[in-house]
Design brief:
Chain A is mainly α. Chain A is built from 17 helices and two strands. The chains are: A mainly alpha, B mainly alpha. At the A-B interface, α2, α4, α7, α9 and α11 of A face α1, α6, α7, α9 and α19 of B.
């Protein structure tokens, strides 16, 4: 799109950029860049939110898609250009900005095309959010906080498909995953929460080392409250929702299976430890001895499982077939679990031995492993000095 | 703390352990990328003693190894640790030459970082020209070197090409950037800050006190040359301040009358603006007050934005420090009389003083409008009506994204500008006072210290231990830094799971490459 800017804006005096005398880091702008921005500055100064001003923002954004000021002004134009008939009375009364459907869809498309060269541009993703916020309002006139309707869910699914397309090019694009979270959180529809768990699973299958996918799984299960404990104050830890015991069992199993696929993959181990630790803290916090006992049993079960896995692994390594050597992620996870049982001297000693091994096998982190070992040693010494111990101490 | 401006060299000894390649059982896109990265790094981890002379010459030619030095002619020598980089790396020596040792370490310090000064055996006094071409020449006489028992440097030393970096940086600062840089047209203050900060760390703006023997050894001619250079640098600093000041934009922000009354800074701002802008700052009657706030944008006429504001404030702080700091205490003198009578510097003339004053004046002028702008960026999070659960995040700019970077980009400048006053009661104390039925006087509180701000930041910690941009976003190095730094400023680190964070951080270092990755299963990265 070539715009004959001086002709279209013949009535306006361009405003040159005022960098002051002898600026540092001065960019050698192209003449077309200078022209477009000189006129835009004038237009913004008089706040002319018109069709031609809108078109001028298009030119400027193609030259520099990171100019957040231009994006903001573009949105102001979109709002101003929205025909009054498109805005619902309810929204107008609530004083919320609206943009007509056609313009929204056009601009989502524009943002997509601009994003082709840089899908990591903050302004593009925020523009999508801003447009979608309007769209969610316009499509069925809901005010923020109200329950979602099928129209909204449809819009959400379409946008999620778009994000999936972006993730197809870069499966770990941070903005993309964050955008998915925003959509699902904002629309807050139970079907979408559930399908996001499935989506995470599909991404984990295609690359188990995709940590963003593992993180998304955690997000969907916890924030969707699909399988969390009921939201009473006792059922949360530090204000965050906790998985139900049954779900924790399932997820721990899922994570361990993921770890078995490739024990060197850090993601499933961290997921596993987090699931179990969360249950433990909840149980401690609840003060309920029964709860503590059940969760304790769960954790001990996994200590056993990981020990078994490690034993099998060590045997495989020494037999000589395809030797990878010790698996640090596995050892580290086992230490994290063992360390929870501060009253179990066997576990504590086992942890310390593992930490010695980690110092050898993971030398880049040797100071960290030494510190962990020292902490356990100090704790054990302290216990020897003070035999009166709180049974629930970590 | 002052180093001669001649060539300095960074030396590291090799680590005592073998770096380990990452392992995988299953091949995936992630493991492929990791393997590829390790292969790229591998050539740099070669044992230099195994290379042929020709290969070594090549490395010397490209500057990755020090030049071959004939034993008879001279040697590179270790001097005392100096320069800001050494301080930041924790390897500067105290006055008696001892290094601080981590008490918890069991004699584990096989790595050493030394900053040393390279000299030539031929002690020709450098002319103006040769000084420019061969910055490695310095002026310590050979006899003095021997007297000081300074050991020779390892010929395989890795080195930081300080002067070449300085040249690149100063060139980028003072010369026009190519048109490809338009992608950074909304980030001018960042470019300025990155360059200025690097130059500062490299000691480019260090001054030399007359008490060092080095200066005594110089002939008068060299001193003049240095003075000229210093004034050229001062001019650069002045241009920096001017450029940044042109990135400032005012913006109207609205507050409730009650909020203004309860905030001594907002009240002061309203008062100062009433004189210049009578119409706009009046209480509009419906309980709101309009104030002229502002911030730095990515360039002239661009909206105020937290990120360039952070960069600008820090850059201006650097200039202020360079120009006005007392060299021994590092503190900026606020006393006008001291500044005017030049009592600060041992040299009795700091060429950067004027630039420093310009920077300080700009910061002083913009301090309260910045405060108002920052407050206007607050956003309540979640749908909780429960005040206990209140979380407050910040936007990066009006009509902009919310993420934890904003908290840091706001809190760090506020700390530097003295806008975070720990002695003021927090809002919870304020509540107690109100609850006591004391409605007559409103207790002053600092909204930046509101617990809800720290609450939001800690909500960004994930199960992995690091922090994401928004709650539940994946743990990520950049956001983790912003979150932790913000909590440190707020003295609220205990709100988060520090152990979990520590573990996550420890796992970010790559066993083979040695550098850090930003997220689990991602690649090592410079940033």
């Amino acid at each position: 799109m070539t715009m004959d800017i001086p002709t279209i804006f013949a009535d306006i005096e361009p405003t040159p950029q005022d960098d002051g005398p002898e600026p540092v880091c001065a960019i050698s702008y192209s003449p077309e860049f200078v022209e477009a921005h000189d006129y835009l500055r004038s237009v913004v100064k008089i706040d002319e939110r018109s069709e031609r001003a809108f078109d001028l923002t298009t030119v400027c954004l193609k030259l520099n898609p990171a100019n957040y000021t231009v994006w903001h002004f573009r949105r102001r134009c979109l709002i101003a250009l929205t025909a009054a008939s498109h805005a619902s009375d309810r929204l107008r009364d609530a004083n919320l900005p609206t943009i007509d459907l056609a313009s929204i869809e056009k601009d989502l498309d524009f943002a997509d095309r601009l994003g082709g060269t840089n899908p990591k541009n903050y302004q593009l993703w925020y523009h999508r959010r801003a447009l979608l916020e309007c769209l969610l309002r316009v499509s069925d006139g809901n005010l923020p906080g109200e329950e979602s309707s099928s129209g909204i869910v449809k819009i959400a699914r379409k946008e999620l498909e778009y994000v999936d397309k972006i993730l197809g090019d870069d499966s770990k694009n941070y903005h993309a995953w964050s955008h998915r979270q925003w959509i699902i959180r904002t629309v807050n529809n139970s079907d979408l929460w559930v399908s996001e768990v499935d989506y995470s699973h599909s991404k984990i299958l295609s690359d188990p080392r995709n940590n963003s996918a593992w993180n998304q799984r955690w997000f969907a299960l916890h924030e969707g409250q699909i399988s969390t404990r009921s939201n009473s104050s006792k059922a949360s830890y530090r204000g965050k929702s906790i998985l139900s015991l049954e779900k924790a069992n399932d997820e721990a199993n899922y994570a361990l299976c993921g770890a078995k696929v490739d024990p060197f993959n850090e993601s499933p181990w961290r997921y596993l430890i987090s699931v179990l630790t969360e249950q433990w803290r909840f149980a401690q916090n609840s003060g309920d001895a029964g709860e503590v006992s059940i969760v304790s049993a769960l954790l001990r079960e996994y200590v056993r499982k990981i020990r078994e896995m490690k034993q099998f692994w060590d045997e495989q390594q020494s037999s000589g077939n395809e030797s990878h050597g010790p698996c640090v992620s596995m050892m580290s996870a086992l230490v994290d679990l063992l360390e929870i049982f501060t009253n179990d001297e066997v576990f504590m000693n086992e942890a310390m031995i593992l930490l010695d091994d980690l110092v050898e096998e993971d030398p880049v982190r040797r100071k960290y492993w030494k510190k962990r070992k020292r902490a356990i040693r100090d704790l054990l010494r302290k216990k020897k000095r003070e035999p009166e111990v709180d049974l629930y101490a970590k | 703390m002052q180093c001669p401006a001649s060539f300095t060299v960074l030396l590291t000894m090799t680590t005592s352990y073998q770096n380990k390649r990452a392992q995988h059982v299953l091949e995936t896109e992630s493991s492929d990328l990791q393997t590829a990265t390790e292969l790229e790094c591998a050539p740099f981890f070669v044992d230099l003693t195994t290379l042929s002379e020709g290969q070594l010459d090549h490395l010397r030619g490209v500057g990755l190894l020090p030049p071959k030095i004939d034993a008879g002619l001279g040697h590179a020598a270790a001097t005392r640790m100096c320069a800001k980089a050494a301080d930041m790396l924790g390897v500067s020596e105290s006055a008696d030459g001892s290094r601080s040792v981590d008490e918890n370490d069991d004699a584990d310090d096989d790595e050493r970082i030394v900053i040393l000064e390279e000299i030539r055996g031929d002690q020709k006094r450098p002319t103006n020209n040769s000084n420019r071409q061969d910055p490695r020449n310095s002026n310590i006489p050979k006899e003095e070197m021997e007297e000081r028992h300074i050991p020779a440097v390892n010929p395989y030393a890795i080195r930081l090409l300080r002067s070449q970096h300085v040249d690149y940086l100063t060139h980028s600062l003072s010369n026009p950037l190519s048109k490809g840089f338009v992608s950074l047209d909304a980030s001018h203050p960042w470019m300025v800050y990155w360059i200025l900060h690097s130059l500062d760390l490299l000691g480019h703006f260090d001054l030399f006190s007359s008490s060092t023997s080095n200066a005594n050894a110089n002939a008068k001619g060299d001193m003049t040359m240095r003075e000229v250079e210093a004034f050229q640098k001062a001019d650069l600093l002045t241009r920096v301040v001017s450029t940044l000041s042109h990135c400032w934009s005012d913006v109207f922000v609205e507050f409730s009358s009650r909020d203004v009354q309860g905030d001594d800074k907002l009240r002061e701002l309203v008062r100062s603006q009433e004189i210049t802008n009578k119409e706009r700052n009046k209480d509009s009657g419906d309980g709101t007050v309009t104030i002229i706030g502002g911030g730095f944008g990515g360039g002239p006429s661009q909206m105020p934005h937290c990120a360039p504001t952070y960069a600008a404030v820090l850059a201006l702080s650097i200039v202020t420090g360079i120009g006005l700091a007392d060299n021994s205490s590092g503190k900026v003198r606020n006393d006008e009389s001291e500044i005017s009578t030049n009592k600060i510097n041992q040299n009795n003339r700091n060429p950067y003083r004027e630039a420093g004053e310009l920077a300080l004046n700009l910061l002083s002028e913009k301090r309260l409008p910045l405060y108002a702008f920052f407050l206007s960026l607050r956003e309540r999070q979640g749908t909780h009506d429960d005040e206990e659960d209140e979380r407050i995040a910040f936007r990066m700019h009006h009509d902009g994204e919310i993420d934890v970077r904003a908290s840091y980009c706001i809190l760090a400048p506020c700390k530097l500008l003295g806008l975070i006053d720990e002695t003021a009661p927090t809002s919870s104390e304020k509540k107690i006072n109100d609850a006591k039925g004391d409605t007559s006087s409103i207790v002053l509180s600092n909204p930046l210290l509101a617990p809800s701000i720290a609450k939001h930041i800690s909500a960004c910690q994930t199960h992995e231990g690091g922090f994401g941009a928004e709650p539940h976003n994946e743990a990520h190095g950049g956001y983790t830094f912003c979150a932790l730094a913000s909590l440190r400023i707020l003295n609220a680190v205990e709100e988060i799971d520090v152990d979990n964070l520590r573990g996550w951080l420890a796992r970010r270092q790559m066993g083979y490459e040695g550098g850090f990755c930003g997220r689990t299963n991602k690649l090592v990265d410079g940033c």
